[in-house]
Amino acid sequence: MIVERYLEWAAAAPAHLRAEAAGALARSWLHGDLEPQVRDEVEAVLTRSLDDPNIAVRCAIAEALAASPEAPHALMLSLAQDAADVAQPVLARSPVLTDIELVDLVALGELRAQIAIAGRRVVSGPLAAAIAEVGSARACETLLRNPGARLTRSAAARMAERHGGDGAVRDALLAHDEVGVELRQILMRSVAQALSAFVAECGWLRPDRARRAADEACDRGALAIAAQSDDAGRFVRHLSERGEFSPSLALRALLSGNLALFEASLATLSGQPARRVAGFVRDFEGRGFEALYRAAGFPISALPIFRAALAAAREAGFVGSALGGAALSRRMVERALSACEGADADVEAMRALLRRFAAEAAREESRRGFEPSHVARAA
Q1: What residues contact 66, with CB distance under 8 A and at least 6 apart?
Q2: Which of 46, 85, 239, 264 could link 232 by a cystine bridge, Cβ 3.0 to 4.6 Å?
């Protein structure tokens, strides 16, 4: 009876009155002391109202039922798949929607829907992982700023990979409690790639030079980040698994006085225990070091360069850089360059790299306001 009367009335009623009536019926279904039969009829009216062409009617139902754990599941799922204005309160608040349904709705890719789901009072680990995998930058930012989100490191890393070039996402990631050195490195790489692409598109540098500059900037940043890590081997594994570790980074670490990272690189890539590696590094002129070097996959043509750098490090007493292993030692770079004299063409790329290292080291010394000769005279 109620269904027929409502439909007869609704056929001629203006939209704003239909919306008021639909909202009142939804609230009465939730809070009214209705007989079971009447309750069923009101639910049927609400279900039929989902076909109302005016969005205000459907919005009124959604707002009334959004937060209720007793709301009809089929009705709420239909509202969750409606237009954004209708779906938003349901996606943000409804406790009757399952994680599987919410993951499907995230995958549909509608921006406001993703943001609403990311801002729910509680976001489970699997749902957070789905948002990290396919969500927009704004949805990921919302998730990161949501204290009720159960965010894993892998989900945070995925957001860094996908949206690390977005300033708001990057800031939210860096402010997150679980941020670690690996995540910082991913963010750094994302920013570098975005800047490299921008510079190349503007025609300021050729694409190959822009990429090289970005790679070398990332190597410098990796050393600074590694200085914050209490497990250099894990950091090297992280870089290696992402295909971002190179012999040039190991050489930079060595020339910066970061012997710990250099040894961790050899140990991780060769599979040898750290104590054994440390012994070979200190006896770098022996055949054991050469075998270790080969096992790590470093280019054999560059072995004299690494040995020359280690010789300079031995003269300094194998001490780390005063700047935390991030700044190149000009003396060590020059020693390594001297090892390239008379070498064959196989080390030409390494020679060019060392020349860039030398220029970088000279600029660093200039910024610090002293020259090695000044230090010698003071001594």
Answers
A1: 89, 90, 92, 93, 94
A2: 264
